[in-house]
Request: fold
Amino acid sequence: MLITYGKFRMLDLGDLTWNKEKDLVCPVNKIGPVDLYVVSHHGLAQSGSPQLLHAISAEGRADE
Reply:
């Protein structure tokens, strides 16, 4: 879920796994940069792909 409030953008992908996250940003970045990324799966290796993290360029991260 991408939430926008004015210029603020927050991304929370719930329990999406890395392969589905990658589909959102490769080959075309469908999300763009965000201000806050809510870390999926409490930061476990099954999510938070390098491709996603690079594509969203988050200013901050928060754990669920």
